[in-house]
Amino acid sequence: GTDGHNLPLFDGIGQPRDRRLLGTVEQSEFTDTHDYLRASIAPAYGIEKLTTFVRHYLYLRPDCFVILDEIEVTEPTHMESRIHFAGACDLDARAAAISNDSAQVVLRLLLPDEAAFVRAKHTNLKPHSGDPESVEVDYLKIETNLLPGRATYAVAFGIGNDADDLTLQRENGRLVVSRGEQTLAVDAAFE
After folding, report:
1. Beta strand 182-187 pairing with 174-179
2. What's the pTM value of the predicted model, to 2 decimals?
3. Cα 191 to the center of its chain, rounded Å
4. Average pLDDT for the chain
5. Are 15 and 9 contacting, i.e. CB atoms less than 8 angstroms apart?
6. 3-class secondary structure for 19-71?
């Protein structure tokens, strides 16, 4: 289910387990400097008040990812977005440095300004249906109460760096992501 993955829950509800609902990949682009994927995910949840959920995945080569979510709801909705990890975590409200034996990743919360990371833990999870052992999994969450209307959330992931030179702006109905010499403008779900 969605609760064990890096996707938001809306009023504690994720994508249904008892039926298969699908989202749509709306755009993709793969180049030597970046990869980009835009997907409409709201239909995969089957939640009537979730009218828009567009996720943008950006990979700025060689070492930076951005996940940007554009969400629209028709009534007040509690949202919790999760980012699971394994390793040590140095956390403040707007950034987290995660490291283990093989990698270091720095997460920066770009949007909205009032959002914050909070550390949490899944307990008593069964890793496989036939596995009697239970495990604990750490995750960071962004938790908020959405009001009717539109909201945008964005997180940058720097692989071995802090991605502190990355900027995100809205310009003429597009989202413009810049880092160093790279600039990528993508169509926003909301103008």
Report:
1. antiparallel
2. 0.87
3. 20
4. 88
5. no
6. CCCCCEEEEEEECCCEEEEEEECHHHHCCCCEEEEEEEEEEECCCEEEEEEEE
